[in-house]
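Feature request disguised as a bug report, sorry. It would help if multi-protein outputs had a clear separator. Right now it looks like this:
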Amino acid sequence: MKRRGFVKALAAAPAVPAVLAQQTAPPTPPSRIPPAAVETPKLELGIPDDVADMQPRFFTASQFAALRKLCEVLMPRIGDAPGAIDAAAPEFLDFLISESPKYRQTLYRDGLDALNGEAKKRFNKVFADADASQSAVLLEPLRRQWTYEPPSDTLARFLCAAKQDVRTATVNSREYTAAAASGGGRRGSGVGLYWYPLD
């Protein structure tokens, strides 16, 4: 028995290297694809904020126009420091208020409607079309003496809240922060709290 096993092993010995050679042979190269077909296309990229036009999604067109005018009056551009319009504060507030609690949404909607209503009553035009002297008259509630109790009047209560919100949205914007960091604008307390540059 042992001799038979030995003879069988000797007979199979020449076939082993051939089988191993077949298993370890390198694969045949695939058909060559032209390099131009494999290269990744180079696409021009843009920052969405730079190319997209914002459409108000919460406020009506007349409310948003009044909000833009209010932002322009409350935080105008001064020298190289961007104003609320440059900082896209109205667009940010449209988003912020759309995600705010119901009472805040009601305050803004009713307040902007009251502002437009008061402009029509006094000057027969919407607030967005008011000139500087007419805007000053309509924003008179902001000059009243501050008290601990919020104003009972809808318009006055809205204007107090909007004044703070417009300022906060402006000084925490990328535009304002960049201008302050370069030394070209006013240095507000909000600088560096919201936007950070990406390397």
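(second protein starts here, but nothing in the output says so)
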Amino acid sequence: MRIDSEETPIRDAVTTLRTIETGRVIAILRGDVGIPDQALAEALVDAGVTAMEITMDSPDAGGRIEGLTRVMGGRLAIGAGTVRTRDQVREAAGAGASFIVSPNRDIAVIRAAVRHGLVVCPGCFTPSEILEALDAGAQAVKLFPSQVLGPGFVRAVRGPLGDIRIVPTGGITADVVRAYREAGAWAFGVGSELVGRGVRASAGETGVVPVDLHRELDRLRDRARAFVEAAR
């Protein structure tokens, strides 16, 4: 694992889209799962994951995005998730994020992200929301919560809207990824089923004691490989 190296970050939208498409898995890091951010990112890259978002409701989200962009930005598209306001867009852009993901379709947020040169993937649930997001400048749409709609929805929507990049998110497992890919999904947002199972701390007499980091990173790589193989 390389520590404290610096790389040229991925920033332009075309390169970001190509980078995400290479692995088709966007790892969602929400909160603190007990694994240092760089160690987690290195394990994901080793497994073929090419995009990772830190949600803006996580502790020190901006600082963590900035740190990861500095040391991993040449190999991994680093983004901000759960972006709900224009202020958060500015914070994410200032931290070096190359893309943002939102839980909803907010035209003001989409346009702000486009002005900052970011790839933007807003949450959508209906064909109307998808088209409104694309008209506002979104390059991809997050189908959320995808477990409510399923692969059949993706297949149906891509009939009249075959050129859109759909990113199912919510309840995504490696088993359902293949069905979504066959239906035409472009990439996948994966949270708790991938990184949410990271190192868990256990309370001891002296406080919080982490479990075996190397073992947990190996398990993370195995899970990530399963997702990437299914997505491809």
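Even a blank line would do. Unrelated, but nice: The chain has ten helices and eleven strands.
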